[in-house]
Amino acid sequence: MKNTAEDLAGLIDANALRQRLSDLTKDTDGDGSDLKIRSKVLGELKSVMKAGRTIAEERLNEDGGGLLCAQRLSFLQDELIRVIYDFALHHVYRVTNASAAERMSVVAVGGYGRGTLAPGSDVDLLFVLPYKQTPWGEQVVEYILYMLWDLGLKVGHATRNIEECIRLSKQDMTIRTAVLEARFIWGDDALYEELVRRFNDEVVAGTSSEFIAAKLEERDERHRRQGTSRYLVEPNIKEGKGGLRDLNTLFWIAKYHYQVRRQSELVKKGVLSRSEYKRFVKSEDFLWAVRCHLHFLTGRPEERLSFEVQREIAIRLGYTQHPGQKDVERFMKHYFLVAKDVGDLTRILCAALESQHVKEPRGQGISGLMRRLRVGRPSVAAKPVAGFAGFEVENNRLNATSETVFADEPINLIRVFQVADKNDFNLNPELTKLIRRSLKLVDRGLRNDPEANRLFVSILTSRNNPEKTLRKMNEAGVLGRFVPDFGKVVAMMQFNMYHHYTVDEHLIRSIGVLAQIERGDSGENHPLASDLISTLQSRKLLYVAMFLHDIAKGRPEDHSIAGARVARKLCPRFGLTSAETDTVAWLIEHHLDMSTIAQSRDLSDRKTITDFANVVQSLERLKLLLILTVADIRAVGPGVFNGWKGQLLRTLFYECEPHLTGGHTKVSHRQAVEQAKETLVSELGHWSEEERNAYVNRHYKAYWLRIDPQRALAHAELIRKVDQNDDKLAFDVTPHSFEGVTEITVLAPDHPRLLSVIAGACFATGANIVDAQIDTTTDGFALDTIFISRELPDDADERRRGERIAKLIGKTLRGEAPLPETTIKKASVKGRMKAFKVEADVLVNNSWSDEYTVLEISGLDRSGLLYDLTRSIATLNLNIGSAHISTFGERVVDVFYVTDLTGQKIANIGRQEIIRERLAAAVGGEVDMSAAAPIARQAS
């Protein structure tokens, strides 16, 4: 590779460019003010800039140097500005005898001031004048700016004399930071030197605490805006936690406080070790490589690593696929490990600042330092921690009494976190640094030490704040070393839209949700889980299973099966008995079952419940599985768990419970039907006996077995109203605020395409169906109930929304409103969905139900998919008994319970194959309507 000077010079030949621009003015005696000449000058500059950027991108692809690329682009920009300045000075606004005021220094500030520039970065300039602005200075600045704007650059700029720079720097922290980064580009270097000297003497001196506090408060506010976790799966590479701006903040603070110009000087100052400095440089280089590739790829200043660009960036950076992990997942894991390193460097710098500068009263890390800088409380003398030799506490922060506390007793690397959890201590940054430098002591001997494992399990099952302590252990690197299987999933990203966090962050958050449930802090969201957790025989099993449930992600085999195997290896180490180990392994192997069955099976179908009960086998396991499922879904990300999912889980629990306690044998189907009829009749006292008797005979047995009394009563009143009005269509809308859904009941003459019509109307109005129940009366009416996602907070508003949808369904059934055309044109996969490939898969199963064939269709989610599927099912001459719609990020799983038109299962193998082909095509938007029955209904 060329040396730095040769490498940069190869981007642009500034002297040759100056000569070409000068030659353009020969016919005008060197006067470049003519507009035609300006146009030619701009053309030359554009050509050179484009060529230079092309070279920079090619070299980035060749050597992968992120910092090198940023420095190349900065150098290219420097040279262009120098050439433009010289041309303006010698050919446009020539001054033969310049006065003392007709001087100027062109200075780079902000990120550009650091000598780094991304392809889409702003170019931040400060034009420094000796005194007030002159006509000459105004003209030169204007010429440079307009030329840069015409080159397509976004330029941030200010024109100030030195006195103004100093005064405004004292008043405005943003301006102060910009001047701190000031770098001379061209012009009068004496002005620049005077600015730097006066800035250091008059602004920086004695104001370190003020600056640090301001920068850290600014950083925390930025994190709040971007998301407080550095493990979000679509991170902002510039502004997000662990991104470039965090590294910038670190260096601003170090530069301001330690008066250094380069990062390497922090090693001489004793702030960073040589290895920590290398981590700083490697982190910065990686983040710059990603950012430059991102800008080149998108052609704009894009800072978010969204799903649609992650795979392409991974390919550009040379990542390849490994068994169990995609190339994009390996790239993103590297990204999150770098973000974690940035957090480590933050704590290291904080420790150095505290030991040399200030102490803070409570809290840890740089945020604690910020609070100290604001409030200025005095420190409290350190006191030994009772019962724990080797540790002391000062200002509620735990520290070691000697540098050898871990070398002397490696078990202290686990004990220190147990002490912190038990007493709600924070960790002194110096202690965190010592822990990280002692990680090699976490070896096989410590991992197999019974006392170390007892301490770890006490942390994991703590009634205080286990999530906080586990996160400290993870950030310090201890958790992944002590449990190597956990270390394999640290920073592991799953390339899908369902999971919001990395695997390790999800596991730690799930422990936090579990602790919330146990404390009763979130009973409104899942009251049954909160009630059941206090009845468990062993809460320890639940916490261990929760910690391990996704620990085998990223392996070639199913993570549930592999995770159960990991549990069988780890649980004895954690001190669990053989029976306890079996229960934990079972929970991990089946941790997805309850969610899958609740969301995608007909819970009114007795075989669904019987099969599930046969898998679970005991009430204790059922309790454990319900609580684990709720916590798992809640920890996936904000808004993933909702009241409707909670209701489905509760229904499955209550339906399964009698089977596990023997209760299912007490009432036969015939008795259950009679009880349901009698319950309804008792509520219909205002009906005549003749009406009551006639009504209960209008429903088949299946209806009475699955209907709850409240809904049965509502259906009865709806059907009676239709009879009295001699109508054939009726609707009922009921918002359910707790479940987060709105129920729409449709009564209409039965027709195989009824659900398709309903789905089409919902698609046209943008309503999202999450579940559907189809019933048929003995006199030829269909009683279809759909549940749509709630959109409006107020019940009255949501009811009106539901009524508008019902009205459109009615118009469509009467032939007064057309159904949408084939939806694939309207609902083409857009935005983030383009990043994913989900193969359509159709399963035809006759074993999941005694009465129905179950169709399970999975594929890439899109608007209008349910409409296309139900239309295809109608053309296949199938009756739908119930439909269950589940969405997992970009992947949808739609399940239909169907029969043929005679009410029988689909047993013919050839017909099953046709169903698979038709429905797989429908997932892609190809709906064969050649066999479709007429849509028009005799509804009026």
Short description:
55% of the residues lie in helices and 11% in strands.
Would you write up a description of this structure?
The model is unreliable at 358-378, 822-830 and 933-940 (pLDDT under 50). The chain is 55% helix and 11% strand. The protein has four domains: 4-205, Beta Polymerase, domain 2 (2-Layer Sandwich), CATH 3.30.460; 207-377, Up-down Bundle (Four Helix Bundle (Hemerythrin (Met), subunit A)), CATH 1.20.120.330; 483-665, Orthogonal Bundle (Hypothetical protein af1432); 727-923, no CATH class. By secondary structure, the chain is of the alpha+beta class. The strands form three sheets. It has an eight-stranded antiparallel beta sheet with strand order 9-10-12-11-15-16-14-13, with helices on both faces. Strands 3-2-1-4 form a four-stranded mixed beta sheet, with helices on both faces. A four-stranded mixed beta sheet has the order 5-6-7-8. Helix 18 (412-423) runs antiparallel to helix 22 (466-476), helix 28 runs antiparallel to helix 29 and helix 32 (619-634) runs antiparallel to helix 33. This is Bifunctional uridylyltransferase/uridylyl-removing enzyme. Keywords: Hydrolase, Magnesium, Multifunctional enzyme, Nucleotidyltransferase, Repeat, Transferase. Residues 503-625 form the HD domain.
